[in-house]
Amino acid sequence: MTRFTTLAETIRLTLADDITAGRLAPGSVIDESQLAERFGASRTPAREALRELAAAGLVVIEPRRGARVASVTTEQLAEMFELLAETEAMCARLATYRMTATERFGLQSLHAGFNPAEPALDAYDEYNRGFHNQLYRGTHNGVLAEHAASLRLRLAPYRRAQFNEHHRIERSFAEHASILEQVLRGAGEEAGHLMRVHILTASAALAQYMRKART
Fold this sequence. Notes:
This is GntR family transcriptional regulator. This protein is mostly helical.
Protein backbone atom coordinates (compact mmCIF):
# COMPACT_ATOMS: atom_id res chain seq x y z
CA MET A 1 0.00 0.00 0.00
CA THR A 2 1.39 3.40 -0.95
CA ARG A 3 1.72 6.37 1.40
CA PHE A 4 -0.82 8.26 -0.74
CA THR A 5 -3.40 5.50 -0.40
CA THR A 6 -2.75 5.19 3.33
CA LEU A 7 -3.20 8.90 3.95
CA ALA A 8 -6.34 9.17 1.84
CA GLU A 9 -7.89 6.19 3.61
CA THR A 10 -6.94 7.52 7.05
CA ILE A 11 -8.46 10.91 6.28
CA ARG A 12 -11.62 9.36 4.84
CA LEU A 13 -12.21 7.05 7.81
CA THR A 14 -11.53 9.78 10.38
CA LEU A 15 -13.90 12.23 8.71
CA ALA A 16 -16.57 9.56 8.27
CA ASP A 17 -16.37 8.75 11.98
CA ASP A 18 -16.55 12.46 12.87
CA ILE A 19 -19.61 12.98 10.68
CA THR A 20 -21.58 9.92 11.76
CA ALA A 21 -20.85 10.68 15.43
CA GLY A 22 -22.02 14.27 15.01
CA ARG A 23 -18.65 15.87 15.74
CA LEU A 24 -18.99 17.52 12.34
CA ALA A 25 -22.51 18.91 12.04
CA PRO A 26 -24.55 18.94 8.79
CA GLY A 27 -23.64 21.98 6.73
CA SER A 28 -20.18 22.35 8.29
CA VAL A 29 -17.56 23.57 5.82
CA ILE A 30 -14.54 21.31 5.36
CA ASP A 31 -11.53 23.33 4.22
CA GLU A 32 -9.26 21.21 2.06
CA SER A 33 -6.07 23.06 3.08
CA GLN A 34 -6.85 22.81 6.79
CA LEU A 35 -7.73 19.16 6.36
CA ALA A 36 -4.38 18.43 4.71
CA GLU A 37 -2.57 20.33 7.45
CA ARG A 38 -4.40 18.42 10.17
CA PHE A 39 -3.09 15.12 8.84
CA GLY A 40 0.32 16.36 7.77
CA ALA A 41 -0.54 15.55 4.17
CA SER A 42 -0.57 17.27 0.83
CA ARG A 43 -3.89 18.39 -0.62
CA THR A 44 -3.98 15.43 -3.01
CA PRO A 45 -4.93 12.69 -0.50
CA ALA A 46 -7.24 15.16 1.28
CA ARG A 47 -9.02 15.85 -2.01
CA GLU A 48 -9.28 12.13 -2.77
CA ALA A 49 -10.79 11.44 0.68
CA LEU A 50 -13.39 14.16 0.14
CA ARG A 51 -14.32 12.73 -3.27
CA GLU A 52 -14.87 9.29 -1.72
CA LEU A 53 -16.99 10.78 1.06
CA ALA A 54 -19.01 12.67 -1.56
CA ALA A 55 -19.60 9.39 -3.42
CA ALA A 56 -20.91 7.91 -0.16
CA GLY A 57 -23.24 10.88 0.33
CA LEU A 58 -21.55 12.19 3.48
CA VAL A 59 -20.06 15.27 1.84
CA VAL A 60 -21.27 17.70 -0.80
CA ILE A 61 -18.66 19.29 -3.06
CA GLU A 62 -19.72 22.46 -4.86
CA PRO A 63 -17.70 24.28 -7.54
CA ARG A 64 -15.86 27.32 -6.15
CA ARG A 65 -17.47 26.77 -2.74
CA GLY A 66 -15.60 23.68 -1.58
CA ALA A 67 -16.89 20.84 0.56
CA ARG A 68 -19.41 20.72 3.36
CA VAL A 69 -21.03 18.00 5.44
CA ALA A 70 -24.19 16.72 3.79
CA SER A 71 -27.53 16.69 5.56
CA VAL A 72 -28.90 13.14 5.85
CA THR A 73 -32.03 12.64 7.92
CA THR A 74 -32.70 9.59 10.06
CA GLU A 75 -35.70 8.88 7.82
CA GLN A 76 -33.46 8.78 4.73
CA LEU A 77 -31.03 6.45 6.50
CA ALA A 78 -33.87 4.16 7.55
CA GLU A 79 -35.13 4.00 3.97
CA MET A 80 -31.66 3.19 2.61
CA PHE A 81 -31.16 0.46 5.20
CA GLU A 82 -34.60 -0.97 4.37
CA LEU A 83 -33.60 -1.21 0.71
CA LEU A 84 -30.25 -2.71 1.66
CA ALA A 85 -31.92 -5.29 3.91
CA GLU A 86 -34.10 -6.55 1.06
CA THR A 87 -31.18 -6.56 -1.38
CA GLU A 88 -28.87 -8.46 0.96
CA ALA A 89 -31.62 -10.91 1.84
CA MET A 90 -31.95 -11.73 -1.86
CA CYS A 91 -28.18 -12.12 -2.12
CA ALA A 92 -28.06 -14.52 0.82
CA ARG A 93 -30.95 -16.58 -0.56
CA LEU A 94 -29.54 -16.87 -4.08
CA ALA A 95 -25.98 -17.43 -2.88
CA THR A 96 -27.20 -20.34 -0.75
CA TYR A 97 -28.44 -22.10 -3.85
CA ARG A 98 -25.74 -21.01 -6.29
CA MET A 99 -22.40 -20.90 -4.49
CA THR A 100 -19.87 -23.48 -5.58
CA ALA A 101 -18.26 -25.81 -3.06
CA THR A 102 -15.10 -23.72 -3.27
CA GLU A 103 -17.03 -20.52 -2.57
CA ARG A 104 -18.79 -22.09 0.41
CA PHE A 105 -15.47 -23.21 1.80
CA GLY A 106 -14.05 -19.72 1.31
CA LEU A 107 -16.91 -18.12 3.22
CA GLN A 108 -16.62 -20.68 6.00
CA SER A 109 -12.86 -20.17 6.22
CA LEU A 110 -13.20 -16.38 6.35
CA HIS A 111 -15.62 -16.61 9.25
CA ALA A 112 -13.63 -19.25 11.13
CA GLY A 113 -10.42 -17.26 10.69
CA PHE A 114 -11.68 -14.16 12.49
CA ASN A 115 -11.19 -13.90 16.25
CA PRO A 116 -14.17 -12.13 17.85
CA ALA A 117 -12.27 -11.98 21.15
CA GLU A 118 -10.18 -9.17 19.65
CA PRO A 119 -12.94 -6.90 18.27
CA ALA A 120 -10.85 -4.06 16.83
CA LEU A 121 -13.07 -1.82 14.72
CA ASP A 122 -10.84 -1.71 11.64
CA ALA A 123 -10.27 -5.48 11.66
CA TYR A 124 -13.95 -6.26 12.01
CA ASP A 125 -14.91 -3.72 9.37
CA GLU A 126 -12.58 -5.48 6.91
CA TYR A 127 -13.86 -8.96 7.83
CA ASN A 128 -17.47 -7.74 7.58
CA ARG A 129 -16.94 -6.37 4.07
CA GLY A 130 -15.36 -9.66 3.03
CA PHE A 131 -18.24 -11.74 4.40
CA HIS A 132 -20.90 -9.76 2.57
CA ASN A 133 -18.87 -9.43 -0.64
CA GLN A 134 -18.44 -13.20 -0.84
CA LEU A 135 -22.20 -13.60 -0.64
CA TYR A 136 -22.67 -11.00 -3.39
CA ARG A 137 -20.32 -12.93 -5.67
CA GLY A 138 -21.97 -16.18 -4.69
CA THR A 139 -25.25 -15.10 -6.28
CA HIS A 140 -23.61 -15.43 -9.72
CA ASN A 141 -25.83 -12.54 -10.76
CA GLY A 142 -23.62 -9.67 -11.84
CA VAL A 143 -26.37 -7.06 -11.88
CA LEU A 144 -27.52 -7.91 -8.37
CA ALA A 145 -23.95 -8.06 -7.04
CA GLU A 146 -23.18 -4.64 -8.52
CA HIS A 147 -26.38 -3.15 -7.09
CA ALA A 148 -25.62 -4.57 -3.62
CA ALA A 149 -22.04 -3.30 -3.73
CA SER A 150 -23.22 0.17 -4.76
CA LEU A 151 -25.70 0.35 -1.88
CA ARG A 152 -23.06 -0.94 0.49
CA LEU A 153 -20.58 1.73 -0.62
CA ARG A 154 -23.13 4.46 -0.04
CA LEU A 155 -23.88 3.22 3.46
CA ALA A 156 -20.36 2.04 4.34
CA PRO A 157 -19.55 4.85 6.81
CA TYR A 158 -22.83 4.30 8.62
CA ARG A 159 -22.40 0.53 8.70
CA ARG A 160 -18.96 1.08 10.19
CA ALA A 161 -20.31 3.55 12.76
CA GLN A 162 -22.83 1.05 14.18
CA PHE A 163 -19.93 -1.13 15.35
CA ASN A 164 -19.18 1.54 17.97
CA GLU A 165 -22.37 0.56 19.79
CA HIS A 166 -21.65 -1.55 22.88
CA HIS A 167 -21.13 -5.26 22.04
CA ARG A 168 -22.35 -4.71 18.46
CA ILE A 169 -19.26 -6.39 16.96
CA GLU A 170 -19.81 -9.56 18.98
CA ARG A 171 -23.51 -9.62 18.14
CA SER A 172 -22.85 -8.98 14.46
CA PHE A 173 -20.35 -11.84 14.34
CA ALA A 174 -22.89 -14.16 15.97
CA GLU A 175 -25.50 -13.09 13.40
CA HIS A 176 -23.03 -13.97 10.64
CA ALA A 177 -22.57 -17.40 12.20
CA SER A 178 -26.33 -18.03 12.07
CA ILE A 179 -26.52 -16.90 8.44
CA LEU A 180 -23.54 -19.08 7.50
CA GLU A 181 -25.13 -22.10 9.16
CA GLN A 182 -28.22 -21.76 6.98
CA VAL A 183 -26.12 -21.22 3.85
CA LEU A 184 -24.17 -24.40 4.52
CA ARG A 185 -27.43 -26.28 5.18
CA GLY A 186 -28.77 -25.12 1.83
CA ALA A 187 -31.65 -23.32 3.53
CA GLY A 188 -31.95 -20.28 1.30
CA GLU A 189 -35.17 -18.84 2.67
CA GLU A 190 -33.88 -19.03 6.23
CA ALA A 191 -30.55 -17.47 5.22
CA GLY A 192 -32.39 -14.61 3.51
CA HIS A 193 -34.61 -14.02 6.53
CA LEU A 194 -31.64 -13.92 8.91
CA MET A 195 -29.77 -11.55 6.60
CA ARG A 196 -32.74 -9.18 6.51
CA VAL A 197 -32.89 -9.19 10.31
CA HIS A 198 -29.10 -8.68 10.45
CA ILE A 199 -29.22 -5.52 8.34
CA LEU A 200 -32.25 -4.08 10.13
CA THR A 201 -30.54 -4.77 13.45
CA ALA A 202 -27.51 -2.87 12.18
CA SER A 203 -29.79 0.03 11.28
CA ALA A 204 -31.24 0.06 14.81
CA ALA A 205 -27.76 -0.09 16.35
CA LEU A 206 -26.67 2.85 14.20
CA ALA A 207 -29.68 4.94 15.26
CA GLN A 208 -28.96 4.23 18.90
CA TYR A 209 -25.27 5.08 18.52
CA MET A 210 -26.01 8.33 16.73
CA ARG A 211 -28.52 9.38 19.39
CA LYS A 212 -25.98 8.76 22.15
CA ALA A 213 -23.13 10.44 20.27
CA ARG A 214 -25.13 13.61 19.61
CA THR A 215 -26.50 14.15 23.12
